[in-house]
Amino acid sequence: MKQKFVLPITPPSTAEKKPQTENRCNENLKPRRLLPQLKKSVRNRKPRLSYRPELNSVFDLDAYVDSTHLSKSQRHHMDRDAGFISYALNYSKRMVVVSGAGISVAAGIPDFRSSEGIFSTVNGGSGKDLFDYNRVYGDESMSLKFNQLMVSLFRLSKNCQPTKFHEMLNEFARDGRLLRLYTQNIDGLDTQLPHLSTNVPLAKPIPSTVQLHGSIKHMECNKCLNIKPFDPELFKCDDKFDSRTEIIPSCPQCEEYETVRKIAGLRSTGVGKLRPRVILYNEVHPEGDFIGEIANNDLKKRIDCLIIVGTSLKIPGVKNICRQFAAKVHANRGIVLYLNTSMPPKNVLDSLKFVDLVVLGDCQHVTSLL
């Protein structure tokens, strides 16, 4: 019978043993540095929210910043709300901001609806008429006043600098914590900052800033839709004769096309007119559908903070956007802040439903809570 050969369990003593160093990993390979990443992850982790005020609670920001007149008990009570605001600003990961003219007042640009705003101080107290499409382009005298207003706002905004609040939003965008800024402002101070830039016209990829009402920085032809930087020298602002200006100037690109067509013996298609690229009342918003699409896509994301700032929400479309975002943030157990110099009307708060804290005062002061 053939005997099976069984291998020894251990190698014989005559076998040459290889040094253990040869079985080690190549010493040139560096291990992953997980500890610093782990520490960074722990440091950036969102802490648990320990306090939430009742819905529609009011916080006097100006009084808190200038706390010399507050008693210790008042200060202690307001510290909780201040901490709530600080938590929202420091730890929110996906923020949406809807801003109005109030954030640019500190830069020297007037708002619209206050007692010192454009609606009250321009056109004999009827400044709102200068933002009505039918009034502006239905009467030459109104067109002249509209040109005066647009040119003055353009020159004013050109000489102004972004405020501390603008800078704070820019930092949020830089850190990847600002999902979107929906701005009603036409001054363009926000889009001057590198991380709040936008596309004109609005296009994909979607920028950080969506201009809801256009911008005084650009003008557009109503026919060929060509967009150019705003040129104040083209718009007539008084009754004096000047061959270089028109009340509603013609589009140079359309005129050039017409010249080419005439030389080629083709029929005329007409010349368009230039206008500031600012959306007025009673006109169809050219980018309304696209903005609605952007907002709907943003609503699908896990937003954890909504900040409504410097606006009275008189525009129905803007109020509707805020209402949808407020409901979404509330469902996500996030934070909804409403920053304004005056108390919002009850019907606005009732429409929004889920405002955690109404912060009254100068929005620039909120940067001190970072």
UniProtKB/TrEMBL annotation:
One of its GO terms (biological process) is replication-born double-strand break repair via sister chromatid exchange. Residues 1-27 are annotated as: Disordered. Residues 15-27 have a biased composition (Basic and acidic residues). The keyword Iron-sulfur does not apply. Zn(2+) binds at residues 221, 224, 251, 254. The active site is at residue 213. InterPro entries: DHS-like_NAD/FAD-binding_dom (IPR029035), NAD-dep_sirtuin_deacylases (IPR050134), Sirtuin (IPR003000), Sirtuin_cat_small_dom_sf (IPR026591), Ssirtuin_cat_dom (IPR026590). PROSITE patterns: SIRTUIN. The keyword Cell inner membrane does not apply. One of its GO terms (cellular component) is nucleus. Residues 75-370 form the Deacetylase sirtuin-type domain. One of its GO terms (molecular function) is NAD+ binding. Gene3D superfamilies: SIR2/SIRT2 'Small Domain, TPP-binding domain. Keywords: Metal-binding, NAD, Repressor, Transferase, Zinc. Belongs to the sirtuin family. Class I subfamily. This is Deacetylase sirtuin-type domain-containing protein. It comes from Saccharomyces cerevisiae (strain RM11-1a) (Baker's yeast).
